[in-house]
User: Which sequence fits this backbone?
């Protein structure tokens, strides 16, 4: 693959070529995203997935399913007892939901920024909710809010690890600089 021989500004290097970038190394993360029944019913699956893929996030798992009430109740257990809880469970089990796992450097924060504010009417233009939504409750998408939540939510919606794919997109080297790509994993030789 062609790489320019021109001097590069490397975000985490020290010395004269370090440039004005902050000393921050994004971490490879996975996050759960749910395309809620309103997104499915309105035919927005492709347009929403396109936002995530265009940003450079990688889909490593994807399914469309009407999830059972007990799973949705477990997922939203933190809201149990709140006035909207029963309506939320009813809404999320009213039809198919697109469940996916996105992977990328800083995937959790990036996904949440792409989704926009929880209230679609207040979400910034250019975000998924800001461009496609009008409602607080029917707000099209859910995304994990932390690494701890992502781990728990992924295990809930993708309990079978064989549903999660490990693959490298052909355009990965165009999304991340070589310094941001994970180091290749060492392979074990047979018989050792």
Assistant:
């Amino acid at each position: 693959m062609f790489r320019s021989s021109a001097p590069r500004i490397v975000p985490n290097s020290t010395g004269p070529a370090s440039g004005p970038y902050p000393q921050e190394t994004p971490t490879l993360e996975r996050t759960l995203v749910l395309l809620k029944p309103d997104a499915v019913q309105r035919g927005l699956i492709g347009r929403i997935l396109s936002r995530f893929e265009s940003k450079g996030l990688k889909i490593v798992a994807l399914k469309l399913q009407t999830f059972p009430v007990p799973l949705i109740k477990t997922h939203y257990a933190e809201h149990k007892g709140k006035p909207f809880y029963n309506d939320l469970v009813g809404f999320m089990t009213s039809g198919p939901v697109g469940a996916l796992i996105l992977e990328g450097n800083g995937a959790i924060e990036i996904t949440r920024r792409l989704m926009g504010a929880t209230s679609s009417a207040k979400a910034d233009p250019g975000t998924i909710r800001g461009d496609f939504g009008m409602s607080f409750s029917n707000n099209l998408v859910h995304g994990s809010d932390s690494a701890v939540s992502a781990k728990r939510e992924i295990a809930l919606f993708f309990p079978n690890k064989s549903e999660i794919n490990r693959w490298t997109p052909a355009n990965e080297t165009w999304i991340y600089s070589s310094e941001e790509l994970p180091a290749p994993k060492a392979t074990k030789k047979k018989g050792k």
